[in-house]
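Suppose a colleague, Dr. K., hands you the sequence of a protein chain of 305 amino acids and asks what its three-dimensional shape might be. Before reaching for any lab equipment, you can write down a predicted structure in token form. Begin with the sequence itself:
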Amino acid sequence: MIDSVNFVYFGNNSCYNNINNIIMGNIQQELKKRNIIYYINDLKCKINSVNIITHLENSYSTNRCISNGKLIAINHGFAIKNYLKGIAKDNQHIINKCDKFIIFNNRWKQEFKHIGVNKNKLHICGSGKIDYLFELQKQIPEEENTICFAPTHNNGSWKTTSSYPKMLDYFDNNKYNFIISPHPFNAKNYIPSTESLCRSKVVIADSGSTIYEAMILGKPVIFPDFLVRKGIHNIFRGSLEDEIYEKQIGYHIINSNNIDNIIEKALNEGVLENQKDFINENYDFSILGKYGEMTVDVIERFLNK
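The predicted structure, expressed as tokens, is then:
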């Protein structure tokens, strides 16, 4: 009998746990409203539970007892990065074991279908982090001349797709207040980028989920082409991130001599029309604020009441 929900985390020392708390917080609040029992087990799936996971890599799933109970995978980040192609190649059995997938948008739906996932397993519910950011934004006002630098991690083969830490060499202009918000993988004492995104007038990002979070919040986004465009095209070819650089969505720094000009333009002119069109195509604003409710609707189908 499946009679509860179990949230499977990385463990106490993971750099991802702050993000997971945000992603899962909306769901846990909705479960409380509906008087559904849930556990935060940290390490293993439970036999009598709908088990919620946020990553599909071997490093996360090994020893998590994923054959126990039911399994629902939640997208932990908005960025495509050809993530599923790598998972399908190295870890297809985890994908096959998942009973449902909670995803952001139609583009993710296409990606899952491309690796053979049945469309009936796919449920577009928006993003717990986006819902959280919109509520947080009501409490934190934007600050003049504040620029948030929110790069993706530079781990392994993805090093050429991240502008961290190279971009830091160009942040010596006293005209701006730069907030440095690295990916949790690159920060020993990680503070989530949520508050930084809300405070900023403009966001500089490269290929991570903060691109889309900033766009959805209505922030002008600047892309450091001179550092990452080639790497993104080579490694993430055909992805949503590659499309941003190929179509020049938002503001783009082609060479390092033009950084101040691009920042001034973004501060003065705001969000470009092509960025507005792009995010409207890739995020359904009609489900904003409904992530917890829609996700628990999917979970309840497995519960025996």
